[in-house]
């Protein structure tokens, strides 16, 4: 019976990829299943590409005025920040992330970091566990990416940033150790400082008792970006308001 | 790239087109940084397929334009949430487009349309044939659709282009729910292999 149920769930990959599951309960149940079933989610990915082929086969030129309208509307529409900013905010009541050991100065491999991160994850409820797991997977993907590089740099006010950069994924994971404590109302904020733009990469969560902060994931790195760190008024700024204490070039 | 460039409507997920797909991913990453030029280029590459699929599902041109505008604005607004690890930019945008069209269909309860079951099935059959034969670029998709069994092909086109849920497809084709699920899955897998999607 149990086996039957699972087989049944697995055959939903096709209708899910075509958005043909009407009931939200069934869709949600299958979405949750996808988080656990790697072969299902990779199958859905492939089948969605087939759906994309069907879309391209149906391509129809929209009226030219739509272009003008869309571009004008975009110019006055504010964009959402990357989702990683939410992950970077530590959750109350649970150590979703334990700590990452201070690796600066030692030539530890990404594999070692990976092992330690996996070993120390902790969460109290199943919801926190699934958040932790999602974050864990995202960070693990960076750490295990082929060609991931370990970078470390000292900030001008002390403390060390350790970065694992997955150039191909345009993502990095950073952890800070030994940063001087800040007065109340101030936070450390990470930035991707590019040639034309500066975007927030999230707040640095408070350090664990070891003095090492939980890992922060940053995505969407572009060529020429540096990883910056500033002190900002709580709860963070849209653009840096102080001189960066770190500006680490990110070789892509 | 101009909207009339024939390349703009070509499906890009095959291994031979991977380069194109990577460029789209790169464009989307720039869009996430507020780069309006990149968004303009992305529009020229993806507005045609997005509008095409939305129109297939909704039929009504003015509603389709409205939804296409919503979709492309959502792409602009949420570009930073795009995760290349989960699939290419084209697939991300087409998934949003198709879902939005489906949401519109399901919320506007096209009840009257549902009653004209036979007419719809027949017109869809013709539409698919006409549209797909219209362009050499679509040859590959047509060929792969041809390689499916009739029930597979009908189930897939009704679900994707028709915007029907698999329950409705089962009802339209008078087969069981279990059969529809497996036929759609088997058909898509055969299409995937035929298209050379990894």
Molecular structure report:
In chain A, strands 1-2-3-6 form a four-stranded antiparallel sheet. Chain A folds into two domains: 2-57, no CATH class; 87-249, no CATH class. Chain A is of the alpha+beta class. Chain A is built from eight helices and eight strands. Residues 1-5 and 85-124 of chain A have low confidence and may be disordered. Chain B folds into two domains: 1-108, Rna Polymerase Sigma Factor, Chain: A; 110-198, Arc Repressor Mutant, subunit A (Orthogonal Bundle). Chain B has ten helices and no strands. The longest helix of chain B has 23 residues, at 36-58. Mean pLDDT of chain B is 80; it is low at 1-19, 110-118 and 128-134. Chains A and B meet through helix 2, helix 4 and helix 5 of A and helix 1, helix 2, helix 3, helix 4 and helix 7 of B.
What's the topology here?
The complex is a heterodimer of chains A (252) and B (198).
Chain A: H1 2-10, H2 12-17, H3 24-36, H4 38-57, H5 64-75, H6 84-88, H7 110-120, H8 126-143, E1 149-154, E2 160-166, E3 171-177, E4 186-193, E5 198-203, E6 216-218, E7 226-233, E8 246-249
Antiparallel strand pairs in A: 1-2, 2-3, 3-6, 4-5, 4-7, 7-8
Helix pairs in contact in A: 3-4
Chain B: H1 18-32, H2 36-58, H3 61-78, H4 89-107, H5 111-115, H6 117-133, H7 139-146, H8 150-160, H9 166-172, H10 177-195
Helix pairs in contact in B: 1-2, 2-3, 2-4, 3-4, 7-10, 8-10, 9-10
